[in-house]
Structures are given as C-alpha cells and as structure tokens.
Amino acid sequence: MLQLKNVRVLTLATLLAALAIVMGFFKLPISQILELRFASHVIAIAGSLLGPVVAMMVGLISDIGGFFIKPTGPFFPGFTISAALTGLIYGFFLYRKPFSLKRVIMAQVVYTLAISALLNTMWLAILYKLPFYETFIARLFTSAIQLPIHIVILALLLKGIDRLQLFKYLEKK
Asked: Which end of the chain is more exposed for a tag (fewer CB within 10 A), N or C?
C-alpha cells in the first residue's frame, strides 16, 4: 500500500488503466460469446511493474472506465471482479521477478483457465442465461487456441519492459 503514495506509481497506474480501456475497445469477434481481447496484457504489465494490489486497481478502473466510456453491453460486476483478479494473478507471478518465459507461461495459463475460461464463462452464463457446460467447452477450446498467441505477445511485451529497466525508474525517490 505504500506504493499508492508514490507519484510515479500512481501516474503509471493511471496511464496503464487508460491504455487498458483503449485496448478493451479492440477485439476480434468470433461469435456472440467468443472474441479475442488484448486488454489483459496491459493489466499484466501493471502486475509486473506495480504489483498485485495496484494491478487489481488498474483492472477495476479499466473495466468500469471502459463501460462508462463505451459500453458494449449491460454492466455486470462479475467482469469487474475478473479484471481485478487478472491484476492479482499477473502481479503474483510477475512482480519484482526477473523476466522468465516459464513464469510468463504459468501466469498466462492460470489467467486463461481461471479467468478467461472459467469465471468469464460463468458471468456470461448468468448474464445471458446460457448453458454453462456447453459455453465453457466452447470457450475452453477457444482459450486453448489463444493461449500460445497470448504467451508470445506477453513475453515480448515483458521482455521489452525488462530491457527498458522501468523497474529502476519506479524505485527512484
């Protein structure tokens, strides 16, 4: 929580939340309930640079802010919970740790299974009164196809951030 008193951390968190909102507008629809999204990568960057607590806040702000700026459906707090948990997962696996492909893969697999495939499917089933099992199988299949793509994207982003040494910038007083 001491990080929330650091102006650099707050500034970067705000910028990442805004970027996550913008990235949330870019999606590749596959069907009514299946689509490729990339906003989670921005939340992953927040998790790696700012830690789980601040990344959770970035996820919350990006979900709520995205809804108010350009709603794509009814507001449902379950997706806000998913966005916050996304920050928690990535922060847990990536914060204050040197770049490691193994860690990136573990973080992405946990996010994909827990959030993308399971929780978000549950929220869609509740919101649109869809059969959970059939929806889960379809989304699990899509998530499995997307997983290597998201791992490569996230690894490239985090490797670039590691080379820029943004961690050192955030720790200056």
From this structure: C
- pLDDT (0 to 100) of residue 132: 96
Confirm if 40 and 89 have CB atoms less than 8 A apart. Answer: no
The structure tokens listed for 129 are 């009164």
The count of other CB atoms within 10 Å of the CB of residue 147 is: 18
Q: Where are the alpha helices (DSSP H) in the chain?
A: 7-24, 39-50, 52-69, 77-94, 101-110, 120-128, 132-164, 166-171
**Are the beta carbons of 6 and 170 closer than 8 angstroms?**
yes
Q: What is the rounded average pLDDT of the residues 121-130?
A: 96
Q: Which two tokens stand for residue 66?
A: 């995205």
pTM of the predicted protein model:
0.90
Cβ atoms 112, 150 nearer than 8 A? yes
Q: What pLDDT is recorded for position 29?
A: 80
Domain ranges, ordered by start, for the chain: 2-169
17: its two tokens: 């939340």
Average pLDDT in the 115-128 region? 95
User: How many Å is the Cα radius of gyration of the chain?
Assistant: 16
- If one counts every other C-beta atom within 10 angstroms of the C-beta of residue 47, the result is 31
